[in-house]
Write a structure and sequence with these properties.
The complex is a heterodimer of chains A (301) and B (509). Chain A is 70% helix and 0% strand. In chain B, 41% of the residues lie in helices and 17% in strands. Chain B has 17 helices and 14 strands. In chain B, the strands form 4 sheets. Chain B has a 4-stranded antiparallel beta sheet, covered by helices on one side. In chain B, strands 2-11-12-13 form a 4-stranded antiparallel beta sheet. Chain B is globular and about 65 Å long. The chains are: A mainly alpha (301), B alpha+beta (509). Chains A and B meet through helix 5 of A and strand 8, helix 6, helix 7 and helix 9 of B.
């Protein structure tokens, strides 16, 4: 239960911190930290408009996407504090829950038969196809390192009896941070601020979503951010500290991560679209380093 | 009626009696143009037709960048049921836009023109059954390729234009740009509004981002046709305004291009740098875009010593932020990756389409009216013109940087010169003490920030404007954008579009 409370608490300030950081770096005062949530609440109060060229598939997309992200959140532990659902091999279920949500968004984008959204769906499918191995190599190596195969067990025993675990944890957190950027379509893969449909990945798929549907998609996107940063936090925070200390470090990490994204997005340009595949493959390569590190530590090679 | 004589060559901003322009038979007219246009230093600045009672008069103006003159020739054709002419486009590609325009306006059939598509669907077009929704797009018949249509409503809600991409996956095979959504009838308004002040204000509104450039071209033309001479002080003041517009637009464009790159730091720095420049124009004349500044024969807003001092101060401050930011932008790997070798066009392509201004200079063509056909202060005080060879997004961005620096240095030089010239400049001419020459033809070229602006006018026997023709540089350059997109990723379209920043309303009029 604790992890759900932490997720909710983080998701409230996380998107605002990114926006605020970017504003400060560009010399503006910036909006209120809670402004993204005011925007979402405004959207939730509105009704949705459905294109006449869309079918029930389009209407299913947003709610299922939202539901999958919420359910996925139930799998996230906070180290030895148990999560709501946990079973052996649950990280596979977690990955494909998110996959189902993505699939629903992709087919609802295709359903409106817009050339833009078709392109966006194509890009999203392509990038997540390339991203998937990295996530599984990452969790596979954590599973191999700890000998368990559920999030709860992995994170509860990660730092149990060896300081080598921190080498693993740092590489894992790095890979997770990069996965987060791809999954949530931030720089360098995508520019969340652009108004130009031709360059978008994720945003273009939801062009036809409006009002309530758009609101829950935005909530789900924000939660997705937190899911991955909670996983990184689980890797990095040592269990020997007491609970309040760890919660403190968690929030500090979340703020730094959000501010880091804002900083990163302020001082570089977006990738050329064709370079994205290369970038994502490089994350896979880092994940491969992780699995080799684990195999060496475990004397498997 | 048609005689044979050699075409005349005139200087920029000059007026000749309409009778002095030789009227050639069409085959001679055709042969001469084709022969001349084979020379890379000649390009067509305007080719248009208008009704002179029952005779359709064609006027073609070719600018010679080496001889620094403009060759003018004409052809006449009586009103007929079916009018047809051999197409020059077949030989000289740059003529496509002019022939398309005439085909649309007068129903002339250009034989063998491969690309006779409507240009702007003007209200007075000949064939009213031609409507914009039936635009004949280039089609493909393929299962693998797909079309992406963008617009006419722009994502940033700027001006209307429709872009149709033929794509193979993410790669663009062909881009067709369809404009003509705006119908202001600017050229007709010049005839319908006879008062000089109305016409001047109209010229300021041809393209909102080139208010100074177009009004500069207009007053130059009116002064030439009305035989008004201005002092060098006034010429310098107007030139400073023109160069300020160039700085403001270029730096704004650099900011916009960085929004396209998603490089936030540069987009906000360049965006902020534009504001003081246009605010300065407001301090000077009460309008941020320089409207009200250019008036025939004089000015309401003399450039005082106080203003000069403020401008020097402003430019110093501007350079302090601009120099480090542009240095950082052009050395940042992630930004360079998005600019270098993206949207590349060749010098040959740009010569073929008759590109002008920045679009020509970034691909290695030395084409700058300020040096080849100077008017105003450029005549007395020479300006440097920069050329780059690359023809890619980087070249279009870097050329802007060079031109900004160049303009700043030039403005400093002009302000220095002003100290030796006694002021203030005279008040503008009132309509009463100013009269256009009768039965004459005048042409005026001005290098606006986008490129060469060309205004032409013809007066009747009473000295009233009978026909007015405006040509914005975008008319030539839109094709450059289409060429840039070939074999490029579709996601690179926005950055290319911003790198040209062409005018929709300048094209549609």
């Amino acid at each position: 239960m604790l992890s759900i409370i932490l997720i909710v608490a983080s998701v409230i300030f996380f998107p605002g911190v990114i926006v605020k950081t970017k504003a400060l770096f560009s010399g503006r005062k910036g909006q209120d930290i809670l402004q993204p949530w005011h925007d979402i609440i405004r959207l939730l109060k509105k009704g949705s408009v459905y294109s006449t060229s869309s079918s029930f598939v389009f209407q299913l997309g947003a709610p299922i996407y939202f539901a999958t992200v919420i359910v996925a959140a139930l799998f996230i532990p906070f180290e030895e504090n148990n999560c709501i659902i946990s079973f052996s091999g649950d990280f596979v279920f977690f990955a494909y829950l998110l996959g189902l949500g993505r699939f629903m968004i992709i087919i609802s984008a295709l359903d409106v038969s817009s050339a833009f959204e078709g392109m966006g769906a194509n890009r999203e499918a392509f990038y997540s196809l390339l991203m998937e191995p990295a996530f599984f190599i990452l969790l596979g190596s954590l599973a191999m390192f700890t000998g368990y195969s559920s999030f709860y067990d992995i994170f509860a025993s990660l730092h149990y009896n060896s300081y080598f675990s921190f080498i693993i944890a740092i590489i894992a957190a790095y890979v997770l941070a990069n996965i987060t950027l791809v999954e949530t379509s931030r720089l360098p893969v995508d520019d969340p601020l652009t108004h130009l449909e031709l360059t978008m990945v994720h945003e273009v798929m939801v062009l036809d979503h409006s009002g309530f549907d758009l609101g829950i998609i935005k909530i789900a996107n924000n939660i997705k951010f937190i899911l991955f940063s909670m996983l990184s936090a689980n890797c990095l925070i040592p269990q020997s500290l007491d609970l309040w200390m760890r919660i403190g470090i968690l929030f500090l990490m979340q703020v730094l991560f959000a501010a880091g994204i804002g900083w990163f997005e302020s001082f570089r340009a977006r990738n050329k679209m064709i370079m994205n595949a290369q970038y994502i493959l490089s994350i896979n390569a880092v994940a491969m380093i992780l699995i080799f590190a684990v195999m060496i530590i475990k004397n498997k090679i | 009626m048609e005689t044979t004589s050699s075409p005349i060559s005139i200087q920029n901003q000059s007026t000749v009696p309409i009778a002095a322009i030789p009227i050639l038979y069409y085959d001679e007219f055709y042969a001469l143009i084709v022969a001349w246009m084979k020379e890379p230093h000649l390009h067509c600045v305007n080719y248009y037709a208008f009704w002179k009672v029952d005779v359709l008069k064609f006027i073609c103006c070719l600018a010679d960048d080496v001889a620094n003159d403009i060759k003018v020739l004409s052809h006449e054709m009586p009103r007929k049921e079916k009018m047809h002419l051999a197409s020059i486009t077949r030989e000289v590609y740059a003529f496509h836009i002019f022939e398309r325009e005439m085909a649309e306006n007068f129903g002339i059939e250009f034989i063998n023109n491969p690309w006779v598509k409507p240009v702007r669907y003007a209200f007075n077009r000949t064939n009213q059954n031609n409507v914009i929704n039936d635009y004949p797009f280039y089609k493909i018949d393929s299962e693998e390729l797909h079309e992406v249509g963008v617009g006419p409503i722009h994502a940033g809600v700027i001006e209307p234009g429709h872009f149709r991409f033929l794509c193979n996956g993410e790669t663009v095979l062909h881009l067709e740009i369809q404009l003509g959504w705006q119908h202001r009838g600017v050229e007709d308004l010049f005839i319908k509004k006879p008062a000089l002040i109305q016409q001047t204000v109209l010229s300021e509104s041809i393209a909102g981002d080139t208010a100074v450039g177009h009004s500069h071209a207009f007053i130059n033309l009116m002064e030439s046709m009305g035989n008004v001479t201005i002092g060098s002080r006034l010429a310098i003041e107007r030139t400073i305004a023109l160069e300020l517009e160039r700085i403001a637009m270029h730096v704004g464009d650099l900011g916009n291009m960085n929004i396209g790159l998603a490089y936030q730091l540069a987009s906000s720095v360049f965006g902020t740098l534009r504001t003081p420049i246009i605010n300065y124009t407001q301090t000077w004349c009460g309008n941020r875009f320089g409207k009200g500044l250019n008036r025939v024969g004089g000015t309401h807003y003399p450039f005082t010593d106080d203003l000069a001092e403020k401008l020097i101060e402003l430019l110093d401050r501007f350079e302090k932020s601009f120099a480090p930011m542009s240095e950082r932008l052009f050395s940042l790997p992630s930004a360079l990756m998005r600019m270098e070798a993206i949207g590349k066009v060749t010098k040959t392509q740009m010569n073929l389409i008759g590109a002008v201004g920045m679009a020509a200079r970034m691909a290695g063509i030395k084409r700058d009216v300020r040096t080849s056909h100077p008017s105003s202060a450029y005549k007395e005080y020479a300006i440097v013109s920069h050329t780059l060879e690359n023809g890619d997004v980087w070249a279009r961005a870097y050329l802007r940087k060079l031109e900004i620096e160049n303009s700043i240095a030039y403005i400093r030089k002009l302000i220095n010169e002003l100290k030796h010239i006694n002021g203030p400049s005279p008040k503008p001419r009132s309509a009463a003490d100013y009269k256009l020459g009768i039965n004459s033809f005048g042409i005026s070229l001005v290098e606006g920030w986008r490129g060469e602006i060309c205004h032409c006018a013809v007066t009747d026997g009473t000295g009233e404007i009978m026909h007015y023709k405006v040509k914005d540089p975008s008319v030539h350059n839109w094709m450059a954008l289409a060429l840039s997109l070939r074999d490029l990723e579709i996601s690179d379209f926005p950055i290319n579009n911003k790198s040209y920043n062409l005018s929709y309303c300048g094209h549609d009029l």
